[in-house]
Design a protein that fits this description.
single chain, mainly alpha, 0% strand, elongated
């Protein structure tokens, strides 16, 4: 999954969580969506960290 796809998935999951909350959905359902969102956000953090590492090492490798 590329960065743009991941950002889209994060926004879609965030909207889904807000909608579930506003509809008064079951707590466990909202918790599950929140955990999915956490996983996606953690993936984004790792993606950005790896990108920064590549930028840091690139001058050394060239």
């Amino acid at each position: 999954m590329n960065k743009e796809d991941l950002q889209t998935k994060i926004e879609d999951t965030r909207k889904c969580m807000y909608e579930a909350y506003n509809k008064g959905e079951d707590y466990n359902k909202i918790l599950n969506i929140s955990q999915q969102l956490d996983d996606l956000l953690n993936r984004m953090v790792r993606f950005k960290s790896e990108y920064k590492l590549v930028l840091l090492l690139l001058p050394i490798l060239i």
